[in-house]
């Protein structure tokens, strides 16, 4: 499909939110990534909280998958962060990168992973973010946003919202996170 | 990691259930698949309901990813099936294949996609399936089961259960399934 065809409205770019306290949010975004990649689509993953390290299976996988761009803007999980101002600055920087990628029209699918935290913690202005997306997101671009506690304004804007709730988690039983499953 | 190391219990094989009526169950299984694949693990996906056709982005992707085995046992979605006996027969055949793959010890992660239907619709005997898994699943094998309406006996057996509930879905707005997102 050429850019012209996409622009002619053959495709409706969906805004998808995976939220809730259960496991499966980033994981489902990764699953959509592989599906889109299978169709030859151009994919960009922007991770807002996780640092780029070699231990993540998904990062290792993406390196093996031509056509997937992977950007990590976070400085690790918030509750490990010693400097909250630095965390805020990185979220702002992440949003700057995201805006550039979204507005470029160069992608079929963009994932803003753990982005809800930047909105829920007030590092970014929620209404400004949504207004910007409404004005600038290409109509044919699929956008996935993950993270707990997605604000109502975001889910109202989205086309597809799934809430992942925890029924049972092995951490509760004292079982450690397993490579290939948790990361 | 050698088979000996795995057998020595360095790893705890998790039983994971992604259930509920929201979008993201198979998608999260695919995300875990890519994560495991990134770690160089040996993955087998067994799809119980979807026919193998070229249109699925995930099937196309798997063909490009060395080390992922992909088996489709279904004859399409149930409500399209003209011959329910045939559907039941294929579920039984799928479970036969699954048992062989699980017992082989040749995999790190096996996904039984849409398997809950075979249990919920009574094509397979639920208690027999769980007893077989308890007796035969290697301790270090990660097993993911997806599908709506996971029976309580299954979630009791599982280590990790996430319920995906639909908050909003574009079908409700008359928006068609999008390539790269829905399939």
Care to describe what's here?
2 copies of one chain form a homodimer. Chain A has a single domain (14-165), classed as Rossmann fold, CATH 3.40.50.300. A 6-stranded parallel β-sheet of chain A has the order 3-2-4-5-1-6, sandwiched between helices. In chain A, α3 links the parallel β2 and β3 (68-72). The first copy, chain A, contains 7 helices and 6 strands, in the order αβαβαβαβααβαβ. Chain A has helices spanning 3-10, 25-38, 57-64, 84-104, 115-120, 126-136, 152-157; strands at residues 15-19, 43-47, 68-72, 109-113, 142-146, 160-168. With 183 residues, the first copy, chain A, is of the alpha/beta class. Chains A and B meet through β1, α2, α3 and β6 of A and β1, α2, α3 and β6 of B.
Brief summary:
Two copies of one chain form a homodimer. The first copy, chain A, is an alpha/beta fold and 183 residues long. Chain A contains seven helices and six strands.
Quaternary state, please?
A: homodimer
Just give the CATH class of chain A.
Alpha Beta
Residue share in β-strands of chain A: 15-25%
Main beta sheet strand tally, sense and closure of chain A: 6 strands, parallel
